[in-house]
Write a structure and sequence with these properties.
Blueprint (H helix, E strand, L loop, with lengths): L3 H13 L13 E4 L2 E5 L5 E7 L7 E5 L2 E2 L8 E6 L8 E6 L5 E11 L3 E12 L2 E13 L5 E7 L2 E7 L9 E12 L4 E10 L10 E2 L3 E4 L2 E5 L5 E7 L4 E4 L2 E4 L3 E6 L2 E2 L6 E4 L6 E9 L2 E12 L5 E4 L2 E5 L4 E7 L4 E7 L12 E6 L10 E6 L4 E4 L2 E5 L4 E5 L6 E2 L3 E11 L5 E7 L2 E7 L8 E10 L8 E8 L11 E3 L3 E2 L2 E8 L4 E5 L12 E5 L3 E6 L2 E2 L12 E9 L2 E16 L5 E5 L11 E3 L3 E6 L2 E3 L11 E9 L2 E17 L4 E6 L4 E5 L1 E4 L3 E5 L6 E6 L2 E6 L8 E8 L4 E11 L2 H34 L16
Parallel strand pairs: 2-8, 18-25, 27-33, 35-43, 44-49, 50-55, 56-63
Antiparallel strand pairs: 1-3, 3-6, 4-5, 4-7, 7-8, 9-10, 10-13, 11-12, 11-14, 14-15, 14-16, 17-20, 19-23, 21-22, 21-24, 24-25, 26-28, 28-30, 29-31, 31-32, 34-36, 36-39, 37-38, 37-40, 40-41, 40-42, 43-45, 46-47, 46-48, 48-49, 49-51, 52-53, 52-54, 54-55, 55-58, 57-61, 59-62, 60-61, 62-63
Amino acid sequence: MLSVRMLSFFILIFSLCDADSICPPEHNPLTLSPPEIIEEYGGNPVTVNCTTALAEHKGMYFTVGNETSRIIEKQMSISQSVSLSDWNVTIKCKVKLNEFNECSKDLQVITFKNPEVVHSVQLVNVIGEETQYRLQCDIINVAPVQYVNVSWYKNSEKIQTESFNDTTTKTPVNESSILRVNISREENVVEFRCEAQLDFRPHRPKLPAISKTHRVSAHYAPELKTQNSADDTYALEGTDIILSCEAVGNPLPVYNWICDGKNMLENTTSLSLPRVHGNKTCACTATNYLGNITKTIHLHVEPRGCPLTLTPSETVVKFGDPVSINCSTSVTDVEGMGWEAPFGGTGFERPPVVTWRVEKLEEWTPSPFCYVTLVDGSQRTVSPVITVYKTPDSVSVSDMGHGSMVEGREYDLKCDVINVAPVQNLTVTWYRGNETVKTDTFNDSTMTPVNASSTLRISTQRDYNGLTFRCEAELHLGPKGPKFPPNVTSPPYTAVVLYKPFMESCPDHVTVVENAAFSKSILSCQADGNPPPTVQWFYEGKILNSSKPLTRTDSGKYTAIVENSRGRSNTSVHITVEYSPSFTCKEHYEITVNDKHQSICEPVGLPTPTLTWFKDGKQMVSPQRWKKNDSGKYLLNAHNTHGTAEHTLYLEILYSPEFKNGNESKQVLQGEDVTLSCSADSNPPSNIRWVYTPAVNSNVTTEGHQKIITITRATSTNAGFYICVAENKVGRNTRFVTLMIKGNTSKVLFPAIWAFLTLLIIGLTLLVVYFHNRQKKRGQYNFVPECQMSNIAI
């Protein structure tokens, strides 16, 4: 047999160790110092100490990976050097409790490497006044990645934080964080940077690795600093002149100058013209990758001392329309004057005015000039600036044969402008719906009609499906042109975008009433997709029968799967089916008196019904404990928002036997007749019996619910205790009657003693039964230690 001291020792060990020989944290006898290691990979080794609270053990040792250190006995502390050149090192300190069991404690070792950060910027798209950028922050060679936090900053404000969920990889890895931003033109220049930080809080902070700052801005097509797209400049013949053309745009535009059809090969905002002679028309075009814009400058060169004046000196004429220009002189020493032209010319006429007139101008580059011959034989000439224009025969948009578009891909739309002149004055504007998305101009100096085209590249979105695109061709002919620039608009092109289906406007939760049909009317969900998707609803993994009404058992999660040729998606809605109250209770219940009140008949319904009790037509409050007089008929009324239900039941209150009279002593004379009666009030009626010492002159009879003992001519043998026991299924009660017979004392004494002993035996029996029943109620408990130490002989 184990000694008390040894048994106590094993109980202590059991309390310190669980079944897997790993000590629970609250009882682990091992302490590590430091409790964890967080150091940079490749650093100097760290020494860890392990101490035990057990004075008696079979030895302590470390396991490092698959290697085990020497077991050290009779010491309460050991040390181990930990190398920081292993990313996946595992270290345990262990103490042997006996030959078969031990406790251990893990040392958490985190070896880290600070990251390098590389930040890159990619321009994605330009839509209207906004430019989309994709910023990428590459975190290079960092470990462990689960502790990395990446923060994005816009100017000086933190706008996004990202972490990584990889808790298994401990070696260095590369990760990336993506930030997509839209920069408006009003924001001008915005600075972005990213920071990557190893965060071991609350243990120790780490200095962040910070990227370079990148400055981004909104891109937009060139725009002239002045609103006029045409200018008139005047100069004297033989002087030097500088023409100016300034535009803004991002990226900065490049410039190209063309004068009278000749490329001037200048990439500056100004063009120098030395010692000019004759009128010129110069076009300056500013271009970047988003478009271009052209400014036309009409240079009027007046001869020195020229006696001629043209009215008008510059004119814009629609091809086929009439035109006339007067040429006048104010000098008197004139021989004559006239117009030289391929058509509409005049002869040598008398001053002061001569007119060039054409009823139908059908020449694209008319070049008339007015001359005057002075009396000294010298001659002076002047030429008007004439622009002949023609609106396009047609303007149309085509998809270049690709047909339907797919969401997320890029496509080109082409605007064809047929037979327009002069093309250098043409502006093509693209519209998506009513929004202007692109403007194109042209550098071609050809004055005769040509065909021009403009291309719009779009990154398709599902919102574009059914949207119209159109282009407008407009001739900007300057201040001498028509008040409203002539334009022609293409018929609308309606985009067809194919995209994966989805459900929109779906609520998370819907409440319906029982027997309602499952239909679109109970849900606001709408399926969207192109091609139009099919919709199939599922409940508990099975296809839903929409013709079957919903019942109270159909509450739960309903899933819709929408599918077309582009893919499929699903969405879920939780449907709660509510229903009116109902009862499924019995009509008769038995309740034990003094039992705590509990709802014996609960209605079902949703929302949960309000239950009201009625007795004898009056509303009542349910008692805390049932009483004997609570038996009777009850009406239960249940109500919720969907209706009312009633149920009638009868409650029968059960109670254990109760005697009208308590214990008593009765004294009679020897030879008298004696009657002892016993009855009890109970529900259900009690089973009554007498416990006493029978005699030849005693008899037990039953009258109704009474048990009666009749003793004829009582003698000393009838003296003693008479016990009445009343019992039903609820409980038991006893009543004692002491019968004393007057007469010979000695004859009475021995039967009394015998009766007392009988009563004592009965009492002890009742006590044994009582404690036996109590033991069953409380249960039997065996104490079992936390840790079963197998293979130990006790």
